[in-house]
Amino acid sequence: MRTIIDWLKRYRYRILLAPLVLFCLIQLYYFAQIAWWIKFNPESTSFMRQQLEVLRQKNPKARLKYQWVPYNRISGNLKRAVIASEDANFSAHEGVDWEALMKAYEKNIKRGKVVAGGSTITQQLAKNLFLSGSRSYFRKLQELIITYMLELLMDKVRIFEIYLNVVEFGKGIFGAEAAARHYYGVPAVALGPEQAARLAVMLPNPRYYGTLRDSAYLAHRTEVILQRMGSASLPKKTAPPPRKTASRRKK
Questions:
Q1: Is 4 inside a domain boundary?
Q2: How many CB atoms lie within 10 A of CB 76?
Q3: Separation between Cα atoms, residue 226 and residue 201, nearest integer Å
Q4: Considering the chain, what is the average pLDDT of its residues?
Q5: E strand map for the chain
């Protein structure tokens, strides 16, 4: 026993430092992965892998419905509907809507548990790409760190493109293309305003609403989003800085 105590005293700083080093290495991994996704599309996400594992517990041959499409092959109706429904200030904020976050925090304090997140589209993407669906303040902290990494390395259009392609729209259904074909039999680029609005209102709880497509709540919420879509501000591609040309010397 004495030997163990002496060993702990001798290496206590290294023991205390180890979790910090591990935490930093994990952040470095996230940073490198996001940098890769600036040019290359994600093949899967943490949420996809978790959902596939659940589905395969019942059916070992289960597969996800998922098909990547470029940003310009996704209906503008869906883009406006998602922003109107999920994050009206997406084009303006730097990743976190602190006002919405404080309202969620106050609600959680009153309930005595985490029941609301106040997440932006960028935060939702951070969670979908790397984290789980569990709710805790530590996970929220990690979500914020990844959110700022995304905003630092990517422009808004790329963030939104990835989000629309990987977000969950139902049990085993991921991305705008798979959702449009599953629910309406059309490609994502052909979604009409009402179809897009109905898909957008499913996002807070897609597995639940995927089986209750005719619910009164979805119908009412769809009408609300249809009215807001006209004022939804879509992100614009960040223009690259102009190249500097070498000035010629006057003779």
A1: no
A2: 15
A3: 10
A4: 87
A5: 65-66, 168-170, 173-174
